[in-house]
Write a structure and sequence with these properties.
- The chain is of the alpha+beta class.
- The protein has helices spanning about 5-10, 20-30, 35-50, 50-60, 70-90, 95-105, 120-130, 140-155, 170-175, 180-195, 220-240, 260-275, and strands at about 160-165, 200-205, 210-215, 245-255, 280-285.
- The longest helix is centred in the last third of the chain and has 23 residues, at about 220-240.
- Strands 2-3-1-4-5 form a five-stranded mixed sheet, sandwiched between helices.
Length: about 290
């Protein structure tokens, strides 16, 4: 049997927030033609997931984890069954129907199959890529999404900026008030970051008391305005009651780098310049070089 926890950790932690929707799986099964972007997406997923991709496909259709060593075989058996039934009926039978029929009536595997809605699948996927405390995206998703945005820049010339945000003197706050109160502050800061950014921005918990925000299609001028609003909003909402402020560093692709690691390091360097020179401020990487 596969390591179920490992599969759950890896499930849906994919590039560009890819969620294996029923519609996407249906296209892979031939119910409709794949678009060019979906075909590219499929190639990327194959590289990332390998044989585990078949576990993912069956999970979307049945909400059940099949052993890694048999999932691929089952997938192709279902496709053959789909083709056979479609031929006999003279019309296409969708992959969901084919899977439930094959696994329930021929393979005798699903005794009481349940069809999971696409909305529910999306919810499950979001749980897998979000930080449990703050409900922001986790660091793995941050890296995957930033890589995708950098690729978008290289293809279309669309600038992308990165903010690294750190709560000032958080260790001292934890020591003075306890970890439970510290967790409350982390949740409040995360909520304020999310409320202050735009719908297209990707807000993440980078680790500990550090957060990150990916700003697609955003140059330095716009990124620094957003960073200033985040800093100001957190100061106005939290400083009076808790003494909480944040320091922020900003870097931009292509000006500061064209890779995930370089851009993240430079945004981090700008962040620590903010902290070293007084805290509760925003620094652009270009200002310290």
């Amino acid at each position: 049997m596969p390591d179920q926890k490992r599969i759950r950790r890896q499930l849906y932690r994919l590039t560009d927030q890819v969620v294996l929707s029923i519609d996407f799986v249906s296209a892979l099964a031939g119910d409709r033609a794949l678009t060019l972007s979906e075909n590219k997406q499929y190639q990327e997923l194959s590289k990332i997931r390998g044989e585990l991709l078949y576990v993912d496909l069956l999970f979307v259709l049945t909400h059940r984890y099949y052993p890694e060593e048999t999932a691929k075989l089952l997938w192709y058996q279902i496709l053959n069954h789909k083709k056979s039934v479609s031929s006999k009926l003279g019309r296409n039978v969708g992959i969901t129907v084919a899977a439930l029929d094959y696994l329930g009536n021929i393979h005798n595997d699903l005794k009481a199959p349940t069809i999971i809605s696409e909305h529910k699948i999306t919810q499950i996927a979001e749980i897998a890529i979000k930080d449990g405390l703050t409900q922001l995206f986790d660091v793995s998703t941050f890296r995957a999404r930033l890589e995708t945005e950098i690729k978008r820049y290289k293809r279309y010339g669309s600038e992308v900026s990165v903010l690294m945000i750190d709560i000032d003197d958080f260790k001292q706050f934890n020591d003075d008030h306890g970890h439970q109160e510290g967790d409350r502050i982390l949740v409040e800061v995360a909520l304020l970051i999310e409320k202050t950014t735009r719908d297209l921005d990707i807000c993440c918990r980078y680790g500990g008391e550090e957060f990150s925000v990916i700003l697609p299609q955003t140059d330095y001028k716009a990124a620094l305005k957003i960073a200033g609003r985040i800093r100001g909003r957190i100061e106005s909402k939290l400083k009076k009651g808790s003494g909480i402020t944040v320091s922020i560093g900003c870097a931009m692709c292509p000006k500061d780098g064209k890779s995930t690691n370089v851009l993240t390091k430079k945004a981090d360097k700008a962040l620590y310049f903010s902290k070293a020179t007084g805290k509760n401020q925003v620094t652009a990487y270009y200002d310290i070089n």
